[in-house]
Amino acid sequence: MNKPExxxxxxxxxxxxxxxxxxxxxxxxxxxxxxxxxxxxxxGKDNIKPIDxxxxxxxxxxxxxxxxxxxxxxxxxxxxxxxxxxxxxxxxIEGNKVRISKRCFGAKEGKLYPFIREFLxxxxxxx
Length: 127
Fold this sequence. Notes:
With 127 residues, this protein is an alpha+beta fold. The protein is built from six helices and eight strands; from the N terminus they run ααβαββββαββααβ.
């Protein structure tokens, strides 16, 4: 039986083509990103706001979106130190609970349906 993180990694990888060609990296151009102090080093100081517990918020709603976005390609996608929110999007696992972001157009279009079924068969709860 597959572990939830293994299923999530395959699901995230399956969205790559859709993200680049259809969605145009919407998640990297809208909303905000929560960063730790360590993750903050990967970004400039623009649009950064301190929040609590040594966390920071990066506003992505500016005209260019994320400062590490080059067109629809992420310049730090292969960086192992990229923010955890970037690594995990759009699937976040908390124990046996799986949360799928409502902001992900691929999820909205049913691209993750086969993986949702796998999560359920693995005993996970979709929240």
